[in-house]
Design a protein that fits this description.
This protein has 431 residues and is α/β, with parallel strands linked by helices. It has a domain of 232 residues: Type I PLP-dependent aspartate aminotransferase-like (Major domain) (Aspartate Aminotransferase, domain 2), CATH 3.40.640. Helices cover 34% and strands 13% of the residues. It is built from 14 helices and 13 strands. The chain has a seven-stranded mixed β-sheet, sandwiched between helices. It is globular. The chain starts with 26 loop residues before the first helix and ends in a 38-residue tail after the last helix. It binds pyridoxal-5'-phosphate. The site of pyridoxal-5'-phosphate (PLP) has 15 residues, from helix 3 and helix 4.
Length: 431
Amino acid sequence: MPHDLPAALGGRPVRTRPFPTWPSPSVEARAAVNAVFDSGHWWQNGDGAGERLEAALVDRFEVRAAVAVTNGTLALEVALRAAGVGPGDEVVVPATTFVSSASAVSSVGATPVPADVRPDTFSLDLGSARESVTARTKALVVVHLGGQPADLTGARLLCDEKGLLLIEDSAQAVAAAWDGRPVGSAGDMTAMSFQAAKLWPGGEGGAVLIRSDGALAGRVERIANCGRPRGSSDYDHLEPGTNARISEFHAALVLSHMAGTDALWLRRKGTYERLDRALPAGALAAVDPRVTRHDHYMVLLRLPQAALTDGLDNATTVRALAAEGIPARVLFPAWHLLPAFRPPTGAPRSLPVAEGATRSALWLHHRLLLDPDCAEDLPAAWSRVTAHASRLAAGPEVRPTTTPKPGLMPDSRTSDDRSGPPFRAGSVSSS
Ligand SMILES: Cc1ncc(COP(=O)(O)O)c(C=O)c1O
């Protein structure tokens, strides 16, 4: 069996050992959940884990206020509602992101308007964002995709010039920084997610950070608490709200991860830097030189042009990497082309970079970086797969001959598998 033949074409898989699982159930996490259980204080009203989480977020991000909520999608919705964004308004959102960045805008009755992303980093292209602004635009959402902070300086300038609210979607970053500015420091509000795949996993959970506006913070608190002021469980509903309060169990879990942030980041960074040296130039999405700290939430990869020309796409590559023992996902499809967002008449706006990435880009979850051997295994698998692009692209007649036996799967189900069984070939990730 030739050594360099992809496993999908009958070669021996690069890797048979599983990668570390995520989230990793620590002693601290268990103790935190048990403490809530034993306390009998199971919902957020008063001095509990929810408030402690909010205080920790205020402290860490140096913001005026933090409101812990049930998930990142609701964090975005509550932030938009609190800012008065609604029917008739438009919000500019990068086309390459998890769907919630756009669907939250629709949920408050406004229209998400897609902007293209940069070809090097897949972060928002501010030129395209500027072109998307109209007289109806109320806000701009920037996404710290894969843990790489978006251009916060440029986004802030654009919003100030056009009188727009800036919302940072920081579901995928907790400690990243742009040109010395930590995430959360430029947006009027920042939405965070603590879903199980995230860097501070609570199973579910989220938060809205409010940078400086106390009145806005009060509105976020009320909307998330059925329209009542914080601390009130009476029937003094001042405005129509929703129940987006985080549960005490989730808040305690999220808190239990914060202390380990830097230690895990150093491990991810170490593996990422070796990967960067070992992979061919251009395989990894670029890191903007103005990034002070990248959280390495995702390892973003793009197929070389030669492989694309040979017919290889990201879905086939994900299948081929799975056969090598490397779990990967295709990058988020450009949301403006999804059935939920297609205009009822006419063609959707053409955004060539985001649309191209839908076929050419893929990602690995940060848990893979916790194994230093990833820096050897991924490049080995990548070079085999891209070297055999045309045969892999040839399709159904090319089948793996080394199907792992049940129970010997090279990887196990983990929380980045949100849309089906683990890393099923060709499946599209949900976040
Ligand atoms: C960029 C982005 N925004 C928003 C969300 C929504 O967060 P949640 O799953 O907590 O609702 C996610 C993740 O799921 C995400 O990756």
